[in-house]
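Subject: mismatched residue count in predicted assembly?

I count 628 residues in my input, but I want to confirm that the predicted structure covers every chain. Input:
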Amino acid sequence: MFSWYYIEGILIQSCYTLLIVLGLSILTGYTGMFSFGHAGFVCIGAYVSILCTMAFGLPYWLSLIIAGLAAMLLGAGLGKITLNLKGDYFCIATLGVGEAIRLIFNNLQLTINVGGKDFLLDGAKGVASIPLKTTLFGDWNALSNGDVGTFLSTLFSSALFIVIIFLTATALLMNSKHGRSMLAVREDELAAQMSGINTFRSKMLAMCMSALYAGIAGGMMAHYFGYLQPKMFLMTKSTEYTIMVIFGGMGSITGSVLGTVLLCALPELLRAVGDWRLVMYGLAVIVIMIVRPKGLMGGKELPVGRICRAVGRVFTKKKKDLPPPDGGSVGEEASV
Amino acid sequence: MGIEYFLQQLVNGICLGGMYALMSVGYSLVYSIMNFSNFAHGGVIMVGAYVGYFALTALNVPFLPAFLLCGVGSGLLAVIIERLVYSPLRKRHAPSLYFIISAMGASIFLENFVIATIDGTPRNYPPIFDNRINIGGISLGVDSLLMIVVSAVALLILMFIIQKTKVGLAIRACSYSEKASTLMGINGDLVIFIIFLMGGVLAGFAGMLYGMRFIVKPTIGQVTNKSFVAAVFGGLGSLPGAIVGSVLLGIMEIFVASFNSNLRDLFVYGLLILVLVIKPSGLMGKVVEDKA
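Triage response: the counts match. Full output below for your records.
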């Protein structure tokens, strides 16, 4: 029914969406600041990365890093001027910035000439024929052929690999002093300040990290679709990312993963019902807010370590169940 | 730029601003009492525009009843959304974050419900007032004049209700402190019902006016983002602020558009950022103090 090509596409989409949602989870889930302009950061990342690969001919992984840093720079600038705003006003400011970024690219007519080659940014028409670089796993065949260089460069452009790196990084960040400070800011900013936490710095860190994630994900997105239009970064996209964070549960990394994968796959599974799928999506959001506002995981983590150990135990037990060479010791074990 | 051209653009700006004002007072009313940005308002306006369209084309009613029908339809919808979506959250004293998310969900729902049941193609209102009149060299469409008059009358009635009647007193008291006014015997639920009803009725009028002047499609709700900017510009939670902010924004937007029409949206959002950086409380907003 589903070809692998189709499933792979959904998985790659889930991967880069997960990266955005992870970043947003740092900002919203852990630090408690709402952003309705995250699509703007993704937009910046996407455009910067295609500039790097298409105009300057840089390798894909390097362009992703540059895209991430560009978005981070913007995030830092935005943070500098808006982080002192309270509650709703911060969220309105991000909304304005997100839309403004999209509109700038919508109106930008720019020809860049590098080494005799013209590269054209053509406003609302967008950019087409972007090289397709994003893969799910990387080129493992090259490894078996002994071509380590190719293998490494494809590994660093593999969506799954990048996401795993950032998942680990997020988990480490959240268990560090900085992560705890962010949680404190979310719970009660005033109290956090009283206990000696530099709340501005915590918020700034969250903002920068989340913009970095979004920028890198933007680069992956551009090199997956092969074309780019400012229309892809409407405010509704930002809302969707926020909804994924809420759906998974604020302040839970595994919750974000679950929420993203479910909400990315759900519209695809519901494709049969056509236009009604987004109706159900909207309805689902309302129902979740009323019935289970904590989200799927409710701020708790799925015990990944315990599950791994349990799975390991199942496998080791299977080995023990094999009849030992001398025989008869199975009953002995049971009596112990 | 000749003086006639200037006056012409000024009238266009006031016309657009009046429409923004009809939309943004709905935002501001809700914000002043419930302290969250009601993003579902765009959906209510869009449904109002559709009610007007079908009243005129399918039911063949004249303009005035269709116009009133828009108000009734949107008012009802706004109240239903309040009852079904916000009321359970309100009972639980949920943080305003949850309200915003629910509002977003409701707006996604409304937009796509219309796409699924009717369709996504843009429709044109049948021409009702397409003659123009000349006043001192300025050519004015009757529909533009009507828009200005209707907005002004509706807003004046609203201001009268808020400032002079007992219901208005209750609304003002609630916007000052909902808890204290509930203790004084004001029915908080009823006040919230009334503000949603009033905001919804005005949203319906705005929807129909917008449809008459431009076009009807499921995504016109997104235009309300601009009226939201207007509400912030004037000062969130302040009714006169919303009106002044809307008219000013409308005029400025038209002049920017006459200079370069690609820049009009960028200008609006740029203004939003500028306002938030320089004076977040807007032109006439309440000064928000963080109470510990």
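The two ends of chain A are 50 Å apart (CA to CA). Marking this ticket as 'not a bug'.
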